[in-house]
DNA sequence: AAGGCGGGGGT
DNA sequence: ACCCCAGCCTT
């Protein structure tokens, strides 16, 4: 690492333009002796994996309110953690979050490791998150490389090697630029730059603190980099979802998904498997119980990471006594929003109940 | 090395 | 409506 003029330029920009975020300790705060809380840095960085700042904010504040320390989170009920995470996506993160909290609280005396290697050994912490926590919470000059950093540095050095093959080159470039002084602020500065100025489309080069030293800017490649390997297209799967409404009290029949895999451990309404070439004519054979099922004309559409889903929604009023003996339960209409329902299931319930859930 | 794993925002 | 984005884990 070396303190280049570019490094200094970016830190100066950060001092003036850093976004105020609930988990962030600003340079000004730090001068007043405020230090980052490793628990909050860890929590925010896990939430920020594959997820935008805007989506994370409310979830972060809710988690800190419910569980102010890693010991509180370690002692929390698994189901309560899944409920609090519902809607944020990539639910294995929530399961690993709980596992990690228990290891830190029970085996490490409630103290997070302060090195990249120590952090990397914990569940849910990979190369990016380990470096981010080491740099931001513990002032270690670890090279923090996320998607923003990949884009910013591939432009800065005009790296034309397509991703992901360019990753080692980019990591080396970040290691070279990261200063011994304020490595955490530098990492956050590069990521902020990527999120606000060096954006995927139409980067705002005119107001960029690196506009004079950026190789892609000089060669007219800013908008086209980084090069990427072509992505494969998503197949479409179909299925049926059944919203059974208790005629006595309006409650809704729910069940738990298997603990691993897609939406593992989350709550859903009963339904068919989701598959390409789903036999729509036989949809009712997947119903959880016999009833006067009415098909909604508007299907629910949802896109996951690797496939599109089209769900036909069926609805019926059923007597309370008709609950099948399979572990499903009647969930009160008023507290439906507190269930561990992923977004696709909230869409299904909104369609069936004509209401936001 | 490749594939599974959500959801939100921009256009 | 469609397109784009992006870390960790398992196989």
Automatic annotation (TrEMBL):
SMART domains noted in UniProt: ENDO3c (SM00478)
Cofactors named for this entry: [4Fe-4S] cluster
CDD domains, alphabetized: ENDO3c (cd00056), NUDIX_DNA_Glycosylase_C-MutY (cd03431)
Domain HhH-GPD: 47-196
Keyword Kinase: no
Reactions catalysed, as given in the entry: Hydrolyzes free adenine bases from 7,8-dihydro-8-oxoguanine:adenine mismatched double-stranded DNA, leaving an apurinic site
Any one Pfam family match given in the protein's UniProt record, by short name: HhH-GPD
InterPro entries for this protein: A/G_AdeGlyc_MutY, DNA_glycosylase, Endonuclease-III-like_CS2, Endonuclease3_FeS-loop_motif, Endouclease-III_FeS-bd_BS, HhH-GPD_domain, HhH_base_excis_C, HhH_motif
Enzyme Commission number(s) of this protein: 3.2.2.31
Keyword vocabulary terms for this entry: 4Fe-4S, DNA damage, DNA repair, Glycosidase, Hydrolase, Iron, Iron-sulfur, Metal-binding
Cofactor-binding details, from the entry: Binds 1 [4Fe-4S] cluster.
GO biological process, one term: base-excision repair
Gene3D superfamilies, per the entry: Helix-hairpin-Helix base-excision DNA repair enzymes (C-terminal), Hypothetical protein, domain 2, Nucleoside Triphosphate Pyrophosphohydrolase
Coiled coil: none
Keyword Methyltransferase in annotation: no
GO molecular function: 4 iron, 4 sulfur cluster binding; 8-oxo-7,8-dihydroguanine DNA N-glycosylase activity; adenine/guanine mispair binding; metal ion binding; oxidized purine DNA binding; purine-specific mismatch base pair DNA N-glycosylase activity
PANTHER family linked: ADENINE DNA GLYCOSYLASE
Biological role: Adenine glycosylase active on G-A mispairs. MutY also corrects error-prone DNA synthesis past GO lesions which are due to the oxidatively damaged form of guanine: 7,8-dihydro-8-oxoguanine (8-oxo-dGTP).
Recorded family membership: Belongs to the Nth/MutY family.
The name this protein goes by in its record: Adenine DNA glycosylase
Natural source organism: Roseibium aquae
């Amino acid at each position: 690492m070396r303190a280049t003029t570019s490094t200094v330029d970016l830190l100066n920009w950060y001092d003036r333009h850093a976004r105020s975020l609930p988990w962030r300790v600003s340079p000004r705060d730090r001068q007043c002796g405020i230090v980052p809380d490793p628990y909050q840095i860890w929590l925010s960085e896990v939430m920020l994996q594959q997820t935008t700042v805007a989506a994370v904010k409310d979830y972060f504040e809710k988690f800190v309110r419910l569980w102010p320390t890693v010991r509180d989170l370690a002692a929390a009920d698994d189901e309560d953690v899944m409920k609090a995470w519902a809607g944020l996506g990539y639910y294995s993160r929530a399961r690993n979050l709980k596992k990690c909290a228990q290891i830190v609280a029970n085996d490490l005396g409630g103290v997070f490791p302060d090195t990249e290697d120590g952090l990397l050994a914990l569940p849910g912490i990979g190369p990016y998150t380990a470096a981010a926590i080491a740099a931001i919470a513990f002032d270690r000059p670890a090279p923090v490389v996320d998607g923003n950093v990949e884009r910013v540095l591939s432009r800065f050095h005009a790296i034309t090697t397509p991703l992901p093959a360019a990753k080692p080159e980019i990591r080396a470039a970040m290691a070279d630029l990261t200063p011994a002084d304020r490595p955490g602020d530098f990492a956050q500065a590069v990521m902020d730059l990527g999120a606000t100025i060096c954006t995927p489309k139409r980067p705002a080069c005119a107001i960029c603190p690196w506009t004079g030293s950026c190789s892609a800017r000089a060669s007219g490649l800013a908008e086209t980099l980084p090069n990427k390997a072509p992505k494969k297209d998503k197949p479409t799967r179909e299925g049926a979802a059944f919203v059974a409404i208790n005629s006595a009290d309006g409650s809704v029949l729910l069940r738990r998904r298997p603990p691993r895999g897609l939406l593992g451990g989350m709550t859903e309404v009963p339904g068919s498997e989701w598959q390409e070439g789903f036999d729509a004519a036989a949809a009712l054979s997947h119903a959880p119980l016999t009833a006067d099922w009415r098909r909604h004309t508007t299907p629910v559409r949802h896109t996951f990471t690797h496939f599109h889903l089209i769900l036909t929604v069926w609805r019926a009023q059923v007597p309370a006594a008709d609950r099948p003996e399979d572990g499903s339960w009647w969930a009160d209409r008023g507290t439906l929003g507190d269930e561990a329902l992923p977004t696709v299931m909230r869409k299904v319930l909104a369609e069936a109940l004509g209401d936001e859930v």
